[in-house]
Amino acid sequence: MSPSGGIAYRGTRLFIEDCDLAALADEFGTPLYVYSRAALQERFRAYASACAGHDALICYAVKANSNLAILNQLAREGAGFDIVSGGELLRVLAAGGDPKRIIFSGVGKSAAEMELALSHGIACFNVESLSELRLLDRLAGACGKTAPVSLRVNPDVDAKTHPYVATGLRDTKFGIDIDGALAAFREATMLPNLRVIGIDCHIGSQLLDDGPFMQALERLIELIDELAHEGIVLTHLDLGGGLGVAYQGEATVAIEEYVRRALARVDRWREQFHGGAALRVLFEPGRSIVAAAGVLLSRVQYLKPGSARNYAIVDAAMNDLLRPALYDAWHEVLPLEKVDAPVVNWDLVGPVCESGDWLARARDLALREGDLVAILNAGAYGMAMASNYNTRPRAAEILIDGAHAHLVRKRETPEDLFCGETMPAL
Ligand code: LLP
After folding, report:
1. Which stretches of the chain drop beneath a pLDDT of 70?
2. For the chain, where do the domains classified as CATH 2.40.37.10 start and end?
3. Angle formed by the axes of helices 181-190 and 211-229, to 10°?
4. What's the gap in Å between 322 CA and the centre of ligand 1?
5. In testing the pocket of ligand 1, which one of 85, 152, 287, 330 has its CB within 8 Å of the most ligand atoms?
6. Burial zone of 234 (CB within 10 Å; 0-12 exposed, 13-18 middle, 19+ buried)
7. Which of 36, 62, 84, 187 lies at a 20 to 30 A Cα distance from 397?
């Protein structure tokens, strides 16, 4: 498979943009996350150009990768942001994001988080339950504000993805059941401190084709029509995120194709029945913008061939990249330098004390101890899901711009990890 995301071999050495990845590993140490600014821009611009001429907003899902430098680059491209916590709100603001382009998703927003978001005047709260609706109304009233609200509907559509990241079926915790949606909208419009502007859904993540998105869109459009008959006129339709990427050469629908198809459907609806009614369309992409823009670099510490399996023990682990352990996820692995060594079928595993601590299984690779590898498509849900399990400091992060490497997060030290702890003299 040919690598993407600005990553390619030049001779025997793997480069990201104009930077030699092995040189970066030597300079900044491993494990190391490295992101390509050009690859990030390319994917955001694919969304933006498909939206050109439409009333649409691309709200990057911050959870996929929340490094300030990434957020800042996207803010400068004109992105909005989809947040799921007060922490993500503060990150977006610190990175120069515009509060008027922030939408707040999530099934369990706390009162404090909603108050913070109200104080910054965000664009919309994506509300997921009647209880949340009532609390938001009370909090908005208490601070003399009107909260802009969209109701997240669960359209009961099968996204055909990993069960841990499928969210659009009735039996998940997400959204308001489509059958109860009309009643929820009626109640929402009665609450004095809310302004009901929209409807949203997010049916799952890593969807390879756009059929389920289009199915969900049909259900949302039906609801918008039913609401209009009751005099509840919505002006904002948010289709969530979820577009997948090719981790293992899978066929995926292109960003432009999906966005154009969705916008064309909305235009048709508008023209046929509604004489050009104003309806802004929002997307909340995370993975499809940032996954391919990032790699995780790791060094082979020990080779441990065995009678059952051959282990290459590397210095990155499940705490750095959880996706293989959690979802059985497949990430391409490439050596940073093509070397003359025997090709062996290796399992790449980390130093963490769990058998689930693996990064790649059964890969034919020419590896020697001390060699460096890149784990591809690690820009989304990589560093964002990293932990300090086994008191392992989290990796440094680098943003590449052509031949320039910028350290955008320094490596943690072990002392950073226990500096907030105390020992009571009991
Ligand atoms: N909007 C909402 C409300 C979401 O819950 C999510 C992701 C997104 C947007 C962005 O979805 P994306 O475009 O990135 O698929 N950790 C998992 C993925 C979890 C996705 C959670 N929600 C993974 O590594 O595969």
Report:
1. 1-4, 275-276
2. 7-36+291-418
3. 50
4. 15
5. 287
6. buried
7. 84
DSSP bridge partners of 363: 346
Question: Which residue among 59, 124, 353, 419 is the active-site one?
Answer: 353
d(CA 284, ligand 1 centre) in Å: 9
Q: Specify the CATH number of the domain 7-36+291-418.
A: 2.40.37.10
Residue 116, amino acid: L
List, for residues 234-278, the tens digit of each pLDDT value.
Answer: 999 999 999 999 999 999 999 999 999 999 999 999 887 776 678
Q: How confident is the model over 336-372, as pLDDT tens digits?
A: 999 999 999 999 999 999 999 999 999 999 999 999 9
Architecture of domain 105-285: Alpha-Beta Barrel (3.20)
- Probe target for ligand 1 pocket from 205, 288, 318, 327, with the most ligand atoms within 8 Å of CB: 205
Whether 317 and 392 have beta carbons less than 8 Å apart is answered as yes
| Ligand 1 near 288 CB (within 6 A) | yes
